[in-house]
Model the fold of this input.
Amino acid sequence: MIYNYYCTNCGHELRGVDIIFDLAQMLDLHSGNGEDLFIKFSPIDLQELAQRDGQTLADGQKVRLKLTLYDLLGYIAQNFKETYNQEAMQSLTYEEFEQVTSMAKLLKSSGLQNADVQTENIKALVDAIIAKLEFQERTDPEVAEDDWKQDTMNYNLYFWVEPEYFEGTEWIYTIKYSSEERPANLLPFSYQGRKIRGYCPECNKPVLDGSGKYEHFLVGFLGAQSAGKTSLFVSMINDLPNYFGKLGIELPEVLCDGKYEKVKNAIEFNKKGWAVGKTDAKATIETYNASLLVKKKQGGRSIILSFIDIAGELCYDQTIGSVSLEALQKFPLIVSCHMYMLCTCVSQKGYGEADEDAAEIDNLALMQIANGIYEQRKNKDTVPPMCIVITKVDMASGDMQSQSMDSTDNPFDRANMPELNGRSTKKGDAFDLLEQMKYLKDIYATVSNKDILESLNWCKTTYENNKYMTYIAIISCSALGMPGRKYVQEKYDFENDGDHFRPMHLSKIWSWILCNIGMMPVCENYYLSYIPSFGEGFHMEDERNQEYPVRRVFEEKEEENRTKAVYKLYLNPSQADRDLYLYHMDEPTGLDKFLKRHKKRRLDILNNIGKTRNS
Done:
């Protein structure tokens, strides 16, 4: 199967078969001066070139292809906006090409050469091409020698390719290449020393290896700068070797999307005991996106999981006191996420002096941002779940005292969260929501810090205000388990002076995410087939052809297991979930069973869901 995937640079969702390659890279034309021209070369271009050359492409078979200078100029010009300029590029004589000036003017006028790029950079590209050209001796005596030499069709370049196809299809997944005459091995595309599939057709940036082969899930981390979003998922990656086997997965591979060097450095700093720097709220290129290839230990399923870090300050427009639509355009991935981690610190004052860069937005603004994101989502047919992640909970643990509090004043007591009644946790369940709520209840009952109490109250209020919008869970954690210090070269020894971090509850966040995307069983060895969408409809198997406003069709047993999973993962089952949950718990007997009144009851519930969705 071929899956759609996301470019984590420009944010476009792409068909799995959509990919381009850099012909300049394949021909080894890059001069290394930082101003190299990207020459788009698509799988269709490759197939057409092979056909013109009389070659047959096959999966895993390398073949040497001939490319004329005329062809190359056409590929360089294929993104010109003006057809006139495209024709002009391929109309260049060999002498005009060699002298650079005409080509440089065309590149500049077509917007592919920045105004500040010097002509000598284009000359370096031309020189690199000329060094690889092979002149084809005249074969047509009726063509004058000089005309033959000026015709760019008579200058050839050669390179090797080895295509890899999507299994069982005629679609090219990626290629290996070499411009050497007799290469020992062909090379996969790579960036910053890491393998990539190719490049994005929209922005020319690297595309994650595995894109299109595997389902691609986006997890958006949203919060103020002080919430520690980046530290959280960097620590999640580094903490995973301690328990990945218990999660039923192999140790994930960190993938490259063009920002790998930044992510790799953040991971290395965290390993050595240094805090990650703040996410830059001014430029999208500075954000930390971390992508992982996650494989199940049994069953063979693999997925790509991307953590998308968004600076809350950039998403908020102070002048209107609401989410910034301009910011959402700059961060398009944030409105495409499959789930959201709404990160807030257990104390808005954080670690005090250790958090000297105070948050520029408060929790009220953060909630307005989250609401704005849900309103602006591209896919209106699904409502992704949200997890309120309370970070730096080590602060609360250190403040806990032996004191008594009236349970009715505790926002996390069952008396104030009646939706928790009737639930139970079985030994071996992947995620224990009741355990999380008990932990928060105990913290609230024993801390004396007013700032912590206010922050916890905000989390409960946020849940109450949004529990009819989307499925919600609450998890507390600490990325570092302590205040983190940033590395200062003049002050510290990088290898030896770092802290010994003690992360708390990160495995709980991993479990919740993996359960949602069907990589871990939620209960009784049941895996979700799709991420639950709040208010999604159900109907019976024999009614598939009827027009119900539903997202998915579930058979009865799947529906029963799925409803149980919702109770395990989220605090707020919908009314339909509650009705179906009670229905499946109530085993029919006697006359009800004989008259099939039990089945009719289920059909009534499902019909009501459809009516609700229609309204």
